[in-house]
Every structure is written in structure tokens, then in C-alpha cells.
Please model this.
Amino acid sequence: MRKFLKLGAAALALTMVSGGMAQAQEKLSIYHWFEYIPQELLDKFSEETGIEVTMDTFDSNEAMLANLKAGSLGSYDVAVPGDYMVEIMINEGMLDTFESSELSNFGNIQPQWVDVPFDPGRKHSIPYQWGSTSFSVNRDDFGGDINTTSILFDPPADLQGKINMLDSQGEVLTMASLHLGIPQCSQDREQLKALDELLQGAKPHWASFNSDGAKDVLVSGDAAVGMIWNGFSAKARAEGANIEYAYPKEGYLVWMDNVVLLKDAPNRANALKFMDFLLEPENAAAVTNYARYTAGVNGVDEFLDPELKTSPEQSPPADAPAGVFVAVCDEATQSVYDSIWTRLKK
Amino acid sequence: MAGGPAAGGGASSSTFAGIRHWLLLPSWLVIGFFLLLPVLLMLVYSFLTKDFRGGVIWEFSLAAYDQFIFDRGLFGDEPPTIEWIYIQIFWRSIWQALLATILCLVIGFPTAYFIATRPQNTRMLWLFLITVPYWVNLLIRTVSMKFLIRDNGPLNEWFLAAGLLDSPIRMINTDFAVQLGLFYSYLPFMVLPIYASVERYNFALSEAAADLYADRWTALRLVVIPAVSPGIIAGCILVFVPSLGAFLAPDLLGGAKNFMIGSLIEEQFKGNAGNWPFGAAASMILLTMVLIVLMIYARQQARGEREGR
Model:
């Protein structure tokens, strides 16, 4: 009995000590994409600053927005939304502001990424990584020209029924708009009807909708064509898929993910430390080496894996058009987009 | 359903008579807080106005139910006709769930019967073997199934090597794959209740039927099945209800090409649509359908008990 008491007392003391330590421990809570930051980098941050990091992950911008709206705002310090989602979150009043003077590495941001349309002057966000969204084609299955969106929406016979699309309304509908040559967020009824018809006609050629498995379906050979982000495609190629990333002449998407300071962040100062940390060229390069996209930070070149610099997923051919960002539509157009998407997946 | 814990209390025991209500309090709190309250919340949300990009505006509105029932064209300004899209999605889910239930029953009943008729000391081993795969997370099992049936997966390779096929058959991203996934996910929910019933069944009744010149099929149909029917019905419900809301198998094995009820609802909260009232309304309609099934079951049970005594 006495032994038990002693043990109990010891356990109690231990919990009190560790509880006290947890109190003193500085914290940072991150809401991030899946498979997008190397654990070693988080460990390095903890080591340098003594801040304990916890991270939850999401698989789409919309899922992140829904979760934050459903009451998670106030429990995270930073999140990593894409370009259009930054604009939406600013409009919804979900982001805190900071002064450029609060970040000692603010000057490392490449000039073209400071005055971005979705956050002019960078008052809420810093660049994380940017890249493009297009599609990749398995060269064992198809030898022809792949630099056209017809591969997705009007595929040659060899590729029909072997196409995986991203399960993401914004990216699919924007790609389809590029194929038709109509503006994004068009309010023209004929154009919207054409968009609807295009997707209805293309669907029988598609095998699946899958975003988080977009890489695996290409590696396993389940799909011969896969709509995909460029870094993910590079990873698929590294895992042995004989695929080529397309730069369609009709256009393709670019995107930029950004670290944002959330409103009501419980550890605002630590969030800013983390942002500063990510703007260090060496750390930005570590993310790039892992995720295979491109950092928006000056001075990363010397830290990059050599093969990244010549990676075809990062080097559009000279005659390729520039990529476009997904636009944020108003409520009326968005509701038509929602209907088109529901009709597509009915 | 909510009456379950209360009805289970032993009325004959006077020991706890005074504090019985207090002892039940935790159950009521759990049921109230984690079951009734969220459902009530969804009910309220389904009658509110949707906010752009998720969330609700606290104004009464029937728009969510209207959207479910009426089609007003792509731009929302045509005269309303009946909306078939959601009926189609619900029907697809119901049909898949029904098929999965029948498949589980056809495979599960003989399995359960087989186990229950083994010698006492080996039954636990058989049951254990049935449940072993289910110690693994459902997601992992579904992904493994995907690996097995893909175009150049082991199953197709085997068929080709054995000379049964000339070219791989497409199984992944088909309704067949979804069926396989649902069947595999929920089979034990069919086997275990039926096993429990068959184990309690008095096999002397089968012998009596045989003595009265019933052949084996007749004895099974007229004696065994009626006697174990509570287990069969419980198994069917346990398979049907989760299959109805399943989205893992349709998404991973079916390719997410067509909405099921579960993924339609998910899209309203997690997808671009951001239409929470509509998601809530669809959930309410699903819940109503499930409740109807359960009520039919409760009625059958009650009738069975009246006839049995």
C-alpha cells in the first residue's frame, strides 16, 4: 500500500512538473496541406526557437475554409491557403494583418510576389510555394502531341477512359474555360451553357476524380492521363512513372500557396517567427526540395537540389503561354458553377 | 432507439430503485449531447438561409428543401420542374446499399450457420478469423482492395497468368468495385448477429422437422429461418444503414465520378458549393429514410414477439 502511495505521489509530481513545463513551453499551431512540409524543417524550427509545433492537415482550400468557419478560427496561428483562397479569407475577415517591419526577412520576398492581386502589399500573407496545374500523360500509352487541353476534354481514342481529373471544382472548371477560350467567371449564358455541355460530353472519357491520389494513379498506371500539380508530377516521375508534364497552348493554371496570419491567433508572435523562418532562403529551399515546386524567395538557388533546376515540370517551353490564376467569382456566377459541378457528378 | 438504455434497466431489482435515474443520467447526457443535439442543430440549419461560401444567415428559409425538390434550370429562373438529380443520387445510394445487403446475406448466412454448427471449442477460432481483418482501419482495407483489383494488380495478373483472360478486365472505378468494397467492409456486421441467433437455435427443432418428413430445404425455410430471423434482420440493418451513407468505397474504388448521398452532403460542407443548409436538408432526408427503415424493423420485432408467445 505504501508503495502505491509513493508511486501515486511520484506520478502526481511528474504530471505537475510536466504540466508546468507545458505552460512555460511556447507553442505554434499550424493548419497545412498534407505532404507539403518536411518534418525535419519543423524540428529545426523547434530547435532554433524552442517553440513546440503542432500541425493539422487539410486536402483542399475549401475544406480548410469550412473547418475554420465551423469554429476552428482561434485555435490555429497560421494556415497555408492558395491564392484565390487568400482573397476569400480577407473578404471574410478571417485574417490578421502585420507590418512588413515585423518580419526581418520580408525583404527576401521576390519583388514580383509582393504586390500580388490577392493580397496587395502582403499585409496578411507571405509566399510559401508556387507552381502550375496542368496534366501529365504516360508516354508508354500515347506518343502524340500533348500540349493541348483536348487531351482532357476531347481525348484521342487511345486515352479515352484512362483519365483522372482533380476532384476540385475551381481547377476543373477553369481548365475547361481555358479549353473553350471563355473568360473565367463568365456571366454570359451561352458561354456557361457551352461549359456545361463540354463537361457533360467529356465525362464519359474520364475514369475517376481524385486529388490526393493524383500522383498514385499515374505511378500505378491506373490512369494514362492525370490532371496534376507540377511538383506532384515531378514526384510521380521520380517514383518511376514514364510521364510528361504538359504545357497546353490553350493555357494552364498557376497558383501560389501562402502562409497567412489567422485572426485571433493564440500565438501571434510565434506565428511571425515561423513566417520569418520560412523566408530564410535555406528553409524555403528545404520546402522546395521536398515539395518540388518553386519558392517565391530570393537567394534559394544555392540550396536547391541540382536536378530541380533542369526539371521539365519547372521549365515551360519557350512557346508556352503564361499560366493564369483561378479567379474568385461573385455569388451569382459561383452558384451556376455549383450547379454545373453537381450536374457533372450527378 | 433513444429508449434503449432505459428499457434495458432491470425493473425487478429494487437495490438501485432510488438512484436508478441518477445512474442513467450519464447515458442520457451522452445521447442528448452527442446525438440529439447535433441532429437538432442540423434540423435548424436546414431551415436557414445559406451564406455565400459556407455558413448560415439566421433567417428562416425553405430554399434548401426547394432546391432538393424543384429544378429551376442552370440559371435558377426557369419555371420549376421536378428535380431528378438528387432523386437519382439517393436512388443510386439506396440501390448500392440494398445490393450490398443482399450480397452480405447470401455469403454471411451460410458462413454464420457453418460457424454456429462447429464444435463448441473451435467456434471462437472461426469467429476470430472472421474479425481479424477488421482490426485494420477501414481506409487501409479499402485502399488495399484498390491495389488488388487495379488493371495491373495481382488479381488481373493472376487471371492473365492462368490463361483465363486475354487482357485485363477493368474492375477499378466501376460499380462492381463499389459493391465489392461495401460487401467487404460490412460483412462481419451480417455474420455476427446471425451467428448469435443460430447459436441459440435449438437444433432439436430441425430433427423434429426431419422426423415429420420435411426435406432439408423445407426445414431451413419453414423452421430455421423464421427462428433466426431477428439475427437476419439485425444484420441487414447493420449492413444497409452504413452502406447508405458510405463514401470511402464510392470515392476510392468507384472513382468519385458520381455523387453518393454521403459525398453529396460532404460537398456541401467541404467542397466549393459551401451550401450548409442544403447539406443539412439532405442529411435530414437521409435520416428520415433511415428512421423509416428502423421503425419497420421495430414493428416487425413487436409483431414477432406477439406471435411468438
About this structure: The two ends of chain A are 67 Å apart (CA to CA).
